[in-house]
Fold this sequence. Notes:
Helix content: over 70%
Transmembrane segments: 21-42, 48-69, 95-112, 147-164, 171-191, 197-214, 226-244, 264-281, 293-314, 326-346
Structural class: mainly alpha
Radius of gyration: 21 Å
GO molecular function: acyltransferase activity, transferring groups other than amino-acyl groups
InterPro entries: Acyl_transf_3_dom (IPR002656), Acyltransferase_3 (IPR050879)
Domain Acyltransferase: 19-342
Number of helices: 17
Keywords: Acyltransferase, Membrane, Transferase, Transmembrane, Transmembrane helix
Low-confidence stretches: none
Amino acid sequence: MTKIQSWFFSNDDKKEHVRALDGLRGIAVLMVLLSHTSNNFIYFQPSLAFNGIGKGGVYLFFVLSAYLLDRQISMALMSGTADSFFWKRYFMRRFLRIFPILIIALMIYWGLTQLHIPTVINNGRDVIMHLFLLDGQGVFWSVPVEFKYYILSPFILILCHAWLKWNLKHILIFFLCLSTFALAADFYFHFNKINTIKFLPVFLAGTYLAIYDVKIKSTPFIEKWSSIIGITGCVALFNCLLVNPNYVGNWLGVDNSNNGRKILILYVLLCVIMLFAALRQKGIFRRFLEMKFLRFTGIISFSVYLFHMPVIYFMNVGLINIPAGLQIYFFFGVTFLLSTITFLLIERPVSRIRISREKFTPKTVR
């Protein structure tokens, strides 16, 4: 591995790291980018419009985040290593993962507004409201939703540990009950878009896969049907990328503009299939997700997610005249350049901050 590669693929040497999940995260953020460019009439080809698939990309982010974090928590609870140091490190890393880059993003959005390039952050009050997770305009809506699940999921997993004793069947029933409650509560109370309960079924899907993956490494059935699992993953990916949710909403008889619950459930199923295939299938689907470009995109995905809209805002103002056929390439080029810089200058250094157990453990006074 070269030095430059080590800047982005430093986790490749870790035994537990699944490279395909980097690629799956890359797919998720590309879905968001393609949706937002289509919404702003920026296309590779006008016939290739991806309006509406961005929500599916964010749901895939939610499932992946729940899986990756709750797998660590599940393993710690099962092995008895979930002590006070573990929880302090967990919450510190979650804070550092979100807030440093979020602060920079909010300041950039606000700065653009002051330069008469309209964004969703109009004043200092908007910055404070978003920083304290009390608002979520534009792409920022997913940040409070996800961060609040970071706080909620440990309590759910502690219940699975202490009450359900990691029984997969009982946990599945418990999660289905929680999901039904969340959907019913949203139906009656019409939660706002930054309420985590509204998206609880999405997160619980990732959490259940995390527990399943820790408990059951492999089975003869999975080994036998590996190729079918891979094909199913490809079909799920195709549906996420190319099936316009507005058409699906009409077919299901729901209003997609109001985030129809049937569409949410459909996306949960597709995301679960893709994640399961990425974890358990070793054929073409997994090799596709392990492509360097997809993995690179996934690794810098949070920066890409936060900073792609300022590029669109700048393009919409029309300060420079970009031919229609080149706009999509300008967008991707500038977005990836900015995101790579913010990843290297902010995300990567912050992610390397560690606390040692020796410093955390108080010394005994003699």
